[in-house]
Design brief:
alpha+beta, 60s Ribosomal Protein L30, Chain: A, 4-stranded mixed beta sheet, two-stranded antiparallel ribbon, 6 strands, 23% helix
Length: 139
């Protein structure tokens, strides 16, 4: 079974794919510039970590979002500021799917995510293929 682990040394984007604007004239929603820039930034940092072959089968993904600890925020404490963790995670998974890390992010069956204040901002990502049977993965 394959796995990948890497660290994106970057200021994680605070805009997410969920941020959209409404064109009231056409009554349609569109992605705003901040969220489009955030997704492009994620893709730019992810591109050098694309595996030779897409990961396959059920996947376990562990992600730690590290935001720069400054001001009142202490190193290695939980980050309760925006962006919402689920929205940030969705943008990351969508970018990884588009880049071919796996066929579909529906294959992520075991997901662990956290946000912390860190000395070195960035995103730690670990993805591993799991055996088909659940009991085999917890022995």
């Amino acid at each position: 079974m394959k796995s990948i682990d890497f660290f994106l040394e970057m200021d994680p984007p605070t805009a997410t794919y969920q941020e959209k604007n409404m064109n009231w004239k056409t009554k349609s929603m569109y992605q705003n510039d901040r969220s489009a820039d955030a997704k492009a930034k994620l893709r730019a940092y992810l591109v050098k970590h694309i595996p030779d072959q897409p990961l396959n089968g059920p996947l376990r993904m562990t992600v730690t979002w590290g935001f720069l600890a400054k001001g009142k925020h202490r190193f290695n404490t939980w980050c309760m500021n925006k962006p919402d963790l689920d929205n940030a995670q969705k943008a990351l998974q969508d970018a990884m799917t588009e880049l071919g890390f796996w066929k579909d992010d529906a294959h992520i069956t075991d997901l662990h995510t956290s946000k912390i204040w860190a000395w070195h901002p960035g995103i730690f990502i670990s993805v591993e293929e799991l055996p088909e049977a659940i009991e085999d993965s917890y022995e």
